[in-house]
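Quarterly update from the structural biology core.
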Amino acid sequence: MTVKNSKICINCHSNNTQNRASRRGIKRYFCKDCKTSFSSKRWPEQLQKIIFQEYFLYHQTLKQLSAKYDRSIPWITKERDEYIVECKVHNPRPVNLICDATFYGKRKDKLGTLVFKDNESKEILIWKHIESALLKDYRYLKNELIVLGYIIESVALDGKRGLKKGI
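Predicted structure, tokenized:
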């Protein structure tokens, strides 16, 4: 059950929250589910990050996010687009890669992301937006990892033909 105009907890993402007193002009809230108190001051930046991650990393649609946060699709889109992605700090090491391409929306949209992830740490090492899964994109990301100092010990690919020989 969603409650209109209730704040979403920054800890457990529940909307079962209660308005509490203000502190220095900033509203305070209490989550009845996880018993956490929080303020609304920095929540917009955290919510932008959560929406960005749920959309791009966990493949949630705008419609699903709209229903989850009880907001309009244009509002979800605005929050997603305003999030500033932090620069990745690389820690070169030997890695076992998992390479996968994921596409969003309809086939005609041609929007996807190619991701190279370390199998052991589950860390996304490098990614690239793509229109279709082409061998040149896989080669480009592989070469970028090598330039960054990573040592590729093994590679697990999706079932696209020709990738095994081409990479």
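The helical segments are 43-56, 62-69, 73-82, 135-148, 163-166.
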